[in-house]
Amino acid sequence: MDMNFETLYPRHDLLIELGQVEMAMESLSERDESERGSLQPRLESRMSALLEALRDLSMQ
Predict the structure, then answer these.
(1) Which end of the chain is less packed: N or C, by CB atoms within 10 Å?
(2) What pLDDT digit, counting tens, does each position of 8-31 carry?
(3) Which helix (H) or strand (E) segment is 15 a member of?
(4) Distance between CA atoms of 7 and 13, rounded to whole angstroms?
(5) Which one-letter DSSP state was computed for residue 28?
(6) CA-CA distance, 40 to 58, in Å (whole number)?
(7) How far apart are CA 33 and CA 60, in angstroms?
(8) What pLDDT shows up at residue 6?
(9) CB within 8 Å of 53: residues ≥ 6 apart
(10) Is the pLDDT of residue 57 over 90?
């Protein structure tokens, strides 16, 4: 049985990073207001980019 897993790696990597961003967003409440204000937009932007990359991968 010859399987090519290389096509699955990018999706797997994106899902792992998406999970890390989600965990970081969940822990924002533990941060002070100034940190939260600077981190939240960056995390939301990264999440958006990851979701877009996943959509693009699924269309290939």
Answers:
(1) N
(2) 788 999 999 999 999 999 999 999
(3) helix 9-26
(4) 11
(5) G
(6) 27
(7) 41
(8) 62
(9) 14
(10) no
- In 3-state terms, what secondary structure has residue 4? coil
By residue count, the chain amounts to 60
Q: Which two tokens stand for residue 25?
A: 């967003």
- 14-28 burial string, b = 16+ CB within 10 Å, else e? beeebeebeebeeee
Q: Say if residue 47 is exposed, middle or buried (CB neighbours under 10 Å; 0-12, 13-18, 19+).
A: middle
> Angle at the Cα of 44 (from 38 to 47), degrees rounded to 5?
140
Using CA of residue 29, residue 30, residue 35, residue 38, what is the dihedral sign? negative
Q: What is the pLDDT of residue 29?
A: 92
pLDDT tens-digit readout, 43-53:
999 999 999 99
CB 5 within 8 A of CB 27: no
